[in-house]
Design goal:
The chain is an alpha/beta fold and 976 residues long. 40% of the residues lie in helices and 13% in strands. The protein has a seven-stranded antiparallel beta sheet, sandwiched between helices. A hairpin with a 5-residue loop joins β8 and β9.
């Protein structure tokens, strides 16, 4: 196959392992993976599979929660290359796309035309249109816009026999394209024959995506007259009937200003009971956030500030009610009616118990967007529980008529309690479809049995209410087994008839929708009966997690495969994936590979293998996942374990030695800077350094200098303002990192001047032994020399702990160095002083922002210039961007703009390597470097990271400054 396709073809164990899971609890290793560059190439791959008797599984973002995109098949990944907008008709509000385009990416392209595709599912940042069509996705605003079926006009597909055909509206079989006339006749015959059974057995709720859409085959089901839309039998078919190559979509005008009411309830039951009354106000969405989700989200740094802005006290449930009419005054009127309705139903803030509650108005668009981000992250927030028991998806999508919603949730809670568990609830209250997941540990046989019992009891109750057992996320391996009890044997046979008519040899995605396996077959689960962690020794503290390796196993198992890391815009995660779009290079792919390795599924010594090194080669340790991954995957820290295992097994390369031991040889290099700088002056030495040490000849190295920064504690400081008499000056310790000390001492000098101007007594961080300067250990961690990093940390701890114990802040300039004291040091060391130093360690801008807020003043003069700010990845990961922005805004007349950027691409030594420089430069070109080039000539480019400044210099030809130097520029003349 590799010889016949120009795209990517993989049959290796590591790649197939990455495609063995989706966002469900199943794991089935595929036969191979094809990533086609064109539709024609995908068709050729399918043809080869057909000839070889191998089944085919189309895959988009791999975010399906029911096991639709796992199977022992040839996986065809459409998401990397098959992602074009083929045609856009703005006037008719239509477009045609390839199946692999991501919803958010499509909407970014539509936005300039005032349009969007409104099936706004929570996984919009990574879900593909092909996957959404296959799943008949719904979205949070389905009250207005309906499901995918309501918004898909036509589909071009490759059938199992290789026929290419267009599926769309027809009045009769004679209207079908020639390849489909016979098929259309047979399908319409099924529709006519089963019309009465369909009318009797198909649930009368909007959220019904189970089985095949036989109701779409009933004459008159599409528009007026007796027509049908053949595309609608493919919608919701989960890739079992054909391979979609082109999807034509109906578009909608962008929503304007909206009004949101966050309706608080002191009782979950009362919230559910109110939903039926609220929908009478015709909102476009009514979404549930329950107490569990509120508590879990409040523990996640990226979400807590949003909750603080709209959650009042601690409600049992909140219904987020959104009004989106074209007339904003009408939205406000409906919001007022909502408040009146809640009051009329007996809910008041002054009440206690079940009738406590009220409406918090949310009119700020930025806050509305932040709340939407929390809501759409509901699944990942729920999965952030660290124990082995996790919320499991199998009765998640049941939809019932609204008048039964409160009773349904109450009875389902009782079912959970009978089986010794509890449920988590969120999502679409206005549609009667709540995502509920009982907490189970599927490693345990008893919990697998409980899953079966809960499913059978829950689905029986749904049938009693004439609801749907499959309300949004489809059937897959989870719910296909229950299609026959839900729809009856006659329609189940009709489903099989449709499958056989399309695909008689079961080429496409077998075992889904029809003829399924048992949903609790443990051989198909991610945690199979023999699943266990290997006895491995880890270097860092993972004890907050369960499992082998001191909790390392539990840490990597936190990834639930929902794929938030696959987003292509916004935030910083995952920068290398944004360049390569390769599953190997996304946080999810790396976490999956680590999980398979630490549980022995990739063979012995997989953790230290070359394949594992390749898996993590493009991880730049930006720590974006630490903050942005809703389940808390910290790949930067996990990478240290892999690097340490490889360093023990293989030793260090020359490149890694030069990088890791930089703090050790830096004092000697500073004595002979002319010698160490020869490399960049002689092209021959550049080529030699590339061949011997993997330093790219296309990248200059930092310039050594003789006038390095030398620690001093005698800098004159401005006297602090007296309060009823003289007061001792405030104290601060300035930690001089290796990079600023030896390469850019101007930054440390500027920091000294600024702190002195603020009236601070500055202590130097000096080693007790009087030897070489202190170091945080970062460079050693970056090459896996953990013992050497600890050695550096101990020296530094001895010097800093006495200050920290007195409460003296420890301030540093380089984010990656200073934040090591807050992040890696507590994970690597125990004992006296560690916690105190971590608590007192502050970035320069964090310290000043705190002090300015407390009332100190700096004698800053106006700087009437624009400033373009790029945040270091670790600043973003530790929520320090607000601090640097506020400090810059303290400078009079300075106009600050922050670049929405991911990693600059340098990432320590990553950008210097010959084998990664191309990816490094592409990362910079994603957003940072173009923004810098567009900045006015007089703009101050601000970047606190040494690597960031180097990338900006190399890639955009501009000099960037540390915030300390910007403040120095602004100081009063007498202080300069």
């Amino acid at each position: 196959m590799k010889s016949e396709l120009a795209g990517e073809v993989h049959f290796d164990q590591f790649t197939c392992g990455r495609y063995a899971t989706d966002a469900s609890h199943y794991q089935i290793t595929p036969i191979g993976v094809v990533v086609p560059r064109t539709i024609d190439e995908a068709e050729r791959a399918i043809g080869i599979a057909r000839a070889e008797g191998v089944t085919v599984l189309a895959r988009g973002g791999g975010t399906s929660q029911c096991g639709q995109t796992v199977g022992e098949s040839l996986v065809v990944d459409c998401s990397k290359y098959l992602n074009r907008v083929i045609d856009l008709d703005v006037s008719r509000q239509r477009c045609a796309v390839e199946p692999g385009i991501v919803l958010d990416d499509l909407n970014r392209q539509l936005k300039p035309h005032g349009l969007w595709f409104p099936v706004d599912i929570s996984t919009a940042s990574r879900a593909t249109i092909g996957g959404m069509a296959g799943n008949n996705s719904c979205g949070g605003r389905s009250l207005r816009y309906g499901t995918m079926r309501d918004n898909v006009i036509g589909i071009d597909a490759v059938l199992a026999d290789g026929t290419r055909a267009h599926f769309g509206p027809i009045g009769s079989p004679d209207d079908a394209p020639p390849p489909l006339k016979s098929l259309a006749q047979d399908l319409m015959t099924i529709g006519v024959r089963e019309a009465d059974e369909i009318a009797a057995r198909f649930p009368k709720v909007q959220r019904r995506v189970g089985g095949y859409n036989l109701d779409a085959l009933v004459p008159g089901s599409y528009k007026d007259g007796n027509g049908i839309n053949l595309a609608h039998i493919l919608v919701g078919s989960e890739g079992t009937l054909g391979f979609s190559t082109r999807v034509e979509l109906k578009l909608s005008p962008l929503l304007g200003r909206r009004a949101v009411g966050a309706v608080h309830f002191g009782s979950f039951y009362e919230a559910m009971n109110c939903a039926q009354h609220i929908v009478g106000l015709k909102p476009i969405a009514v979404e549930l956030v329950d107490r569990t989700m509120i508590e879990l989200a409040g523990a996640i740094p990226i979400y807590k500030p949003t909750l603080d802005r709209f959650v009042r006290d601690l409600p049992e449930a909140i219904l987020l009610v959104e009004f989106g009419e074209n007339d904003h005054e009408e939205n406000l009127r409906r919001l007022r009616r909502l408040k009146e309705l809640i009051g009329d139903l007996g809910f008041h803030w002054d009440n206690s118990g079940t009738k406590w509650g009220g409406v918090v108005e949310v009119l700020n668009p930025e806050l509305q967007a932040a709340i939407t981000e929390v809501r759409t992250s509901g699944l990942n927030i729920m999965m952030s529980m660290k124990e082995q028991g996790k919320p499991v998806s199998f009765v998640e999508d049941c939809a019932v008529p609204l008048e039964h919603l409160a009773d349904y949730t109450s009875r389902l809670t009782a079912i959970f309690e009978r089986h010794g568990t509890r449920g988590t609830w969120y999502a679409h209250a206005g549609s009667g479809c709540l995502h509920v997941r009982p907490v189970l540990n599927l490693r345990l046989e008893k919990d697998v049995h409980a899953m079966r019992a809960i499913a059978e009891e829950a689905f029986a109750m749904v049938r009693e209410y004439k609801g749907s057992h499959s309300g949004e996320h489809g059937d897959g391996l989870v719910r296909s087994e229950f299609n026959e009890p839900m729809f009856g044997s006659k329609l189940a046979r009709a489903f099989e008839e449709v499958k056989d008519r399309f695909d008689p040899n079961a080429l496409y995605n077998p075992g889904k929708v029809v003829r399924p396996s048992k949903f609790d077959d443990r051989s198909l689960l991610r945690y199979k009966p023999d699943y266990s962690g290997l006895d491995i020794k880890t270097e860092l503290d993972w004890s907050v997690f369960p499992g082998a390796g001191g909790g390392f196993q539990g840490a990597v198992e936190m990834c639930n495969n929902n794929g938030a890391c696959r987003k292509l815009a916004g935030g910083a995660m995952c920068p290398s994936y944004r360049v390569t779009r390769d599953e190997r290079d996304v946080t999810r792919g790396r976490a999956n590979t680590l999980r398979l390795a630490v549980t022995g599924q990739l063979g012995p010594d997989a953790l230290s293998s070359d394949e594992m090194a390749e898996t993590l080669a493009l991880c730049v340790s930006c720590k974006a996942c630490r903050r942005e991954c809703p389940t808390g995957i910290d790949m930067a820290r996990m990478k240290i374990e892999v690097l340490a295992a490889r360093a023990k097994k293989n030793g260090l390369s020359l490149h890694d030695r030069l990088v890791g031991y930089l703090p050790r040889y830096a004092p000697y290099a500073a004595r002979l800077p002319w010698l160490f700088n020869l490399r960049d002056r002689w092209p021959l030495l550049q080529r030699v350094s590339e061949s011997l040490a993997n330093f790219s000849a296309r990248r200059s190295l930092p310039k050594w200098r003789a006038d390095i920064y030398r620690d001093r504690s005698d800098w004159p400081h401005r006297a602090a303002p007296a309060e009823g008499g003289s007061t001792p000056p405030r104290e601060v310790v300035l930690f001089a990192d290796t990079f600023n000390r030896y390469f850019e001492r101007e930054n440390l000098d500027a920091a000294m001047r600024v702190l002195s101007a603020g009236g601070y007594r500055i202590h130097a961080a000096k080693p007790k032994d009087g030897g070489r300067p202190l170091c945080c250990g970062r460079t050693f961690l970056s090459v896996g020399k953990v013992d050497e990093a600890r050695r550096e940390m101990r020296r530094t701890l001895e010097a800093l702990a006495p200050f920290a114990k007195r409460g003296v802040p420890i301030v540093g300039l380089e984010p990656s160095c200073l934040l090591t004291f807050r992040d890696e040091m507590p994970a690597l060391m125990t004992g006296e002083g560690v916690a105190e130093v971590a608590a007192q360690a502050l970035l320069f801008e964090e310290f000043l922002a705190r002090e300015i807020k407390a009332g100190i003043s700096l004698p800053l003069k106006p700087l009437p210039r624009p400033a373009l700010l790029h945040g270091h990845c670790h600043q973003k990961a530790f929520a320090a961007m607000g601090a640097v922005e506020s400090v810059l805004r303290a400078v009079p007349d300075l106009k600050v703009e922050t670049v929405e950027s991911s990693c600059c691409g340098m990432a320590g030594s990553f950008g210097y390597k010959a084998d990664t420089i191309d990816v490094s430069l592409k990362m910079g070109e994603l957003s940072l470097l173009p923004a810098v080039r567009k900045a006015p000539d007089d703009a101050i480019i601000v970047a606190d990271g040494t690597s960031c400044r180097h990338q900006i210099h190399d890639g955009a030809g501009r000099e960037a400054l540390h915030v300390a130097r910007v403040l120095e520029m602004s100081l009063q003349n007498e202080q300069r």
